[in-house]
Amino acid sequence: MGKLTISHLIETGIWFAIAIVFFAFSFEFNQPIEIYKFGASGWPRVVIALLLLVTCGNLFHMYLNGSASQKGRVGIADDDEGEASYTTPGALAKVIAILSTPFLFALSLKPVGFYFAAPIFIALVIFLFGERRWKWILGITVLLYFILLLLFMVLLNAPLPQGNVSPFYDYSALLLTLNTKLQQLNLW
Amino acid sequence: MVENFLAGSASLFGDPMTIAIFVFGVIGGMLFGAIPGVSMLTLAAILLPFTASLEPAQGVMLFAVIYCTGTYGGAITAILFNIPGAPENAPTAFDGYPMTRQGKAGKAVGAAVLCSAIGGVASALVMMAATEPLAKWAIRNIGPPEIFALVFFGLAVASSVGGRTLWKGWMSVLLGLMIATIGQDPVGGINRYNFGLVDLAAGIAFVPAILGFFAVSEIFIQAEKKAVGKFDAPEVGMSFPSFLEIWRHRIAVVRSILVGFFCGILPGIGATLAAFMGYGEAVRWSKDKEGFGKGKLEGVISSETANNAATGAAMIPLLALGLPGGALTAMMVAVFQMHDLEPGPLVFYNSPDLIWIVFAAMFYANLSILFIGLLETKTILYLLKVPFQFLAPLILLLASIGSYIGRGLVLDVVVMFGAGIIGFLLRRSGYSIPGIVLGIILGKIGEQNFAQGMQMVHYDLVAYMSRPICALLIVAGALTLIAGVYKAVTSSLQEAK
């Protein structure tokens, strides 16, 4: 097995799986284009073939050298070099929470809307990043929420998701109505 | 030329409204470029509907100014937080962020200010002097085969920087190319890889992907460091680079201006590839190759000079041929169309005033980078003192807004956070995020131009390679590729012994 580890094999397996899935789905649009000999699937399949080829090259490198960087490579940030090790289950749980919170926030935007979800998200992220002083969490949440509303709602009138479920939608509508009334005052 | 420039300057500074728009563009571009999470594209997308109520010259000028100053502004976040404000600032982070970690943020930002201004002013001067002849040259000599060849060369260069090994560099680029195939194919408009989702038929928008891969993944990396107790805030270094330090890199500056201008002039290529190639060429010609990526001033200088040198050049295909070089120049086409104008050769004869106001505004915008940039640098460096737990939610929310505003799709926000998680995992395994982003940006352009080129030469490879510029770029790309593979294989074998 050389210097190959289980994680190297999993990594290679994921790349092969990506290539296989994309190749399999390429049959869905494998139809000729009258003006173009290679059709819609030609380019993606070349990319898939090249991906398989370089994945083999990567496997060869990992077989000989494990996870070591290739000598003379440039543009690798120090942050990208080391892999963090989780000494406690709490640290792993914290990282999983940090990774999933923004994703859940994004999924909640359609039903809940930006205006309602944003302050909860701000407070949650500050908390997950280690802040435990509740006065600071509250203060910064209000400050950031106010800045965002001022910039994007009041000054730039940017259209943001309003939600489609009551009472979240009603809250967004209330804020937007207040903004319309503010604009009608012609303060600037 | 001088008379036209003076007339353009007089029109620009003769009307208070035009001055106000110019100042707004300069400050807005710098701010939106420098706020982590949003970019000049966010500002441009928000402002686009408002330009309908402006004069045509004011609207186009506003976008041109935002383009110049926003390209510089994106370097600030790349240097301070490893979050490039725009893809064209990605190579700046290679050396800029390590400099911040070493307490040299002031030097890196100062160099970015100076070199952005130098590259931008040089480019604006060439643009004013030679738009028409350069456009004519481009029409005669540059076609789809040359653009594909440059994309190939650019990808070969990009794969050689970033990524723990050459293989990972290439895998990153190919993943980007793969993502770019999602959506309609550029020749026949056939849906590819939309997995039954209607919103995916238009493909993956590159702004959310870029924000996810760069900004969100960086937040996750820092969050992980906090969770495992390895987080240390970077030092704030206020010292600026001396004139001598910049002078020592004069050859790199000139080389990057040439590279940037050449890339910028090609339709569809723009500043991103310019920055990568400027950086790649700096590495190629340097005696201290190992120093790159570890905080070398020349890395910042090369990429920032090249990307701003491309801004003026990108206006040449836009104004002379009506071909946009990137997302922001594409929005400029929309501004033209809102006012019943079409960018192209006729615009020089029908609206010379508009052209020269835009040229003058770009020249002054690049100059103002120098003055406003130097003034604001010290203030911006204090951003590093804001505790990260307060900065992170702001960046994530700004990035969410930036992703959503482009197309008004919640899917784009989901894609952004998905890209953030993938980017986080890939960075931990030594893959190149800038490589993925470049693949996404150049994938469609490369495929479209390859298809058009093949149709042009009736699938005859000899005819394809008989075009000198195309052949030169393909051979250069192939040599870069072969040399890289040879080096990767031999170094793997040597290190194994």
Descriptive key words:
heterodimer, A: 188 residues, mainly alpha, B: 497 residues, two-stranded antiparallel ribbon, 21 helices, 2 strands, globular
What does this structure look like?
- The complex is a heterodimer of chains A (188) and B (497).
- Chain A is mostly helical.
- Chain A has two domains: 6-69; 89-184, no CATH class.
- Chain A has seven helices and no strands.
- In chain A, helix 1 (6-25) packs antiparallel against helix 2 (39-65).
- With 497 residues, chain B is mainly alpha-helical.
- Chain B has one domain.
- Helix content of chain B is 76%, strand content 1%.
- Chain B is built from 21 helices and two strands.
- A two-stranded antiparallel sheet of chain B has the order 1-2.
- In chain B, helix 4 (56-81) packs across helix 5 and helix 8 (166-180) crosses helix 19.
- The longest helix of chain B is centred in the first third of the chain and has 37 residues, at 105-141.
- Chain B starts with a helix and ends with a helix.
- The mean pLDDT of chain B is 84.
